[in-house]
Amino acid sequence: MTATGEDATNTIDGGLEKVGVVGGGLMGSGIAEVAARSGRSVVVAEATQSAADAARARIEKSLQRAAQRGKLEDPEGVLGRIGFSADLDALADRDLVVEAIVENEDAKTELFARLDKIVAAPDAILASNTSSIPIMKLAVATSRPQQVLGIHFFNPVPVLSLVELVPSLMTAEATTERARSFVQDGLGKHAIDCQDRAGFVVNALLIPFILSAIRMYESGFASAEDIDSGLVRGAAHPQGPLALADLIGLDTTKAVAESLYEEFKEPLYAPPPLLARMVDAGLLGRKAGRGFYTYG
Ligand code: NAI
User: Fold this and answer.
1) Domain closes at, from 172, 193, 214
2) Which of 44, 58, 278, 287 has a Cα-to-Cα distance from 220 of 20 to 30 A?
């Protein structure tokens, strides 16, 4: 969106041309990919060099898959727009940084305090892809809470078009509007507005549904296959709730459930014991090769 008579370079898609992503896992790599595919310069900062290399390999594979399906013409060009680093300082010149590290409040607040010192542009936006941690907790870890908000993408990011925009009580309206412009005009996704409450719109509805399916399976009421095919064939869901939990990651599912339970104290949000045991065992779903199902 370009306002007439203004400097176009500062107004195109909220002026957010240089994008940083912290954490290049499932979500961070997807966010980096869609931002680079929109023509932006992207830097992915990971915790270690080997994690940065893994993020690069993940994005490369996804771009190649898109090219093979005829959905992308220049995978090398897109990859060339993405830098990878194990050093957070590589984000100093970014206009927008999207945090996508583990769903852990202490880790995220510590990271936001560090980003606040590193990201130099006074109008830069610091965003979180958190599924459930209050944006306000991250905002007050910085000296610029008016420029902090949630930009919550959905997995797989290159495929799903929804983004939840989550301003905290302290987020400036201009910040939300720049983020909206980036998401809608820049990335071509659909934004919905949510209050800063655990789970926002989608996970507040989806997580108790997944937890109910886990409890049903845990009680021996039905097999995983029957629960999932029941919802696929009987309710036209694209995949069943247990397969979906495997896709989200059981650690992330549990962490989101804990945040919802912490916020609302409703038993329907409490993670069932089986979910906790599976996470303890490292059976995290697709990304670990095994969860409710086994993956090749
Ligand atoms: P993941 O476990 O796949 O990736 C997390 C990445 O962050 C890892 O690669 C890890 O090395 C890196 N990391 C951890 N601490 C770091 C640090 N201090 N600095 C730099 N990198 C660090 O997790 P996933 O699934 O990508 O989730 C990330 C965030 O996105 C979480 O907040 C989660 O709640 C949210 N989310 C997850 C969705 C899903 O379906 N998995 C959907 C929407 C949001």
Assistant:
1) 193
2) 287
**Tens of pLDDT, residues 74-90:** 999 999 999 999 999 99
Cα-to-centroid distance, 132 and ligand 1 (Å): 13
- Give the range of the structural domain holding residue 262, as residue numbers without chain letter: 202-286
pLDDT digits (tens, 9 = 90+) for 247-281: 999 999 999 999 999 999 999 999 999 999 999 99
Label residue 12 by pLDDT band (50, 70, 90).
low
Total-model pTM: 0.91
Nearest atom in ligand 1 to the alpha carbon of residue 155 is 40
Measured from the Cβ of residue 262, the count of other Cβ atoms closer than 10 Å reads 14
Which residues lie across from 190 on neighbouring strands?
162
Whether 21 and 74 map to the same domain: the answer is yes
Listed in sequence order, the residues at least 6 apart from 65 whose beta carbon sits closer than 8 Å to its beta carbon are: none
In this structure, which amino acid lies at residue 274? L
What are the angstrom distances between the C-alpha of 288 and each of 11, 23, 115, 224? 42, 17, 30, 18
* Sign of the four-CA dihedral 105, 107, 113, 119: negative
With a 6 Å cutoff on the Cβ, whether 250 touches ligand 1 is no
